[in-house]
User: What shape does this take?
Amino acid sequence: MYQFSLVILYLSCYSFLGWIAEVLYVFVTTRHLQNRGFLTGPFLPIYGVGAIALLLLVYPYVDNPFLVLLSSVAITSVLEFFTHLFLDRVFHIKLWDYSSERFNLHGRICLQNSLAFGVLGLLLLYVIHPAVDMLADGLPPEVAIAVAWALFGIVAVDTANSVRSLSKVRPVLDRLEGTLAEAHANIEAEADHHHDEHDARASVASTTHLNTMRRISTAFPHAHSTRGGRQLSKESSS
Assistant: This one.
């Protein structure tokens, strides 16, 4: 139980550190603070999952930095590719697009980002994890277990709520073209011009779901539906 709780603790910790890294990167490049990621809270599970994968699969070979770098590039690239594919197939949404970058694969991953994640893998295994591991060892087992599962509960509830909200607005995205931000603006404009704003919102999605849509469109300004306009095209041709 304790060892498994440590994995959960590391997963939550690195999801949080990944969120910090994304926020800092966006702030440096745009001078704006943004709540990055799919969730409401300060967690990016893709970073946590990637970190756990590196710890399980790569850490045993930490004596070979070159192998660690190559493995980190490969593992994080696969994770990013299939996360992008999952969001596309299930929610019909593309949060990021590397099509304009050189050496990209279907716009889902690109060499530049993959190499950057490889460097982050080196930083994780040689600098960050030894420090985090030392701090975790200093916690009494019962405290580590309690903290780990409390954090897991928070992330699980947040994830379920975000998935549910995005599922609710998916049919709307299938009817609208443009970015997610533009789609959200169109929905808000429709509600504002309706006599009863509550009914207008309810006909599309609840306020909570629209807030999720607004948050994601702010975190990913270029996010767009991968099915946008298809339903309208079918209706017009029928």
Summary: The first helix runs from residue 2 to 30. The radius of gyration is 20 Å. Strands lie at 93-94, 104-105, 109-110, 224-225. The chain has a mean pLDDT of 82.
